[in-house]
Amino acid sequence: TFLSLINGVAATANTENSISFLHTTSGGASTESARISAIAEGTWSATASTQDAAVVISTIQNAILTQRVFITSDGFVGVGGTPGTLNSMQIFRAGTVKQNTDILALSNTGNAADMDATGTSILFRQEYYHATSPLIVDSGRIKIATETDWTSTASTQNSYISISTCFEGNLVEYFKMNSKGVTILGTGTVNTTGVAVHTIFNGTAPN
């Protein structure tokens, strides 16, 4: 540790120890522009179990300091709001009613002249039980991928969505919907005319 900031007042709930960043206005006044804070979550004593603190990153908008990122003492993260304890991470944003609001964007910046099957995915992983050596392995994937070589021409920008689940230790793609909305369940393919060439199961899939 090269630098320590010590608040000499005994900590109670919301006691703050922070680093403040300031900018200078055109009139020469120094004004706070951002803050990183360690905030006590309760009254601290010599008992270790009372010594809990959150980390908060705040920014200034229209001269108002607003908390933007909140990390609780037990590692729950909130972006745009204070997280609960049911999810490891929560993102808050006030959307517009009767309209879609994009809360999160995943951008794949890889591109080339030959780029069909270029995918962007969310991978789900699960730890298995072992008495001495448990290990985290892949358990599922949701993927969006290009069907064609994308260029700036809109007609080349076609994509598909697929869902893979884990079967006997391997991820297998069992659901796929192409850019024309044709859907297949199972391990078949969709031909270039958009016609499913694999049985589509409705209801309970056979074993």
pLDDT < 50 runs, ≥5 residues: 202-207
Q: Approximately how much helix is present in the residues? A: under 10%
- Main β sheet profile: 6 strands, mixed
| Number of helical segments with 4 or more residues | 0
Q: Helix and strand succession? A: EEEEEEEEEEE
How much beta, percentage-wise?
35-45%
Mean pLDDT: 90
The multimeric state of the shown protein is: single chain
- Measured on Cα atoms, how large is the radius of gyration? 25 Å
Task: For the record, give the distance between the C-alpha atoms at the N and C termini, rounded to a whole number.
Answer: 59 Å
Give the tally of β-strands: 11
Structural class: mainly beta
Shape: extended
Sheet with the most strands: spatial strand order: 1-2-3-4-5-6
Describe this structure in words.
- The protein is an all-beta fold and 207 residues long.
- 0% of the residues lie in helices and 41% in strands.
- It has no helices and eleven strands.
- It has strands at 16-24, 30-40, 53-61, 64-71, 77-79, 89-91, 119-128, 135-146, 159-167, 170-177, 183-185.
- The strands form two sheets. The protein has a six-stranded mixed β-sheet, with no helix packed on it.
- Strand 7 and strand 8 (135-146) form a beta hairpin.
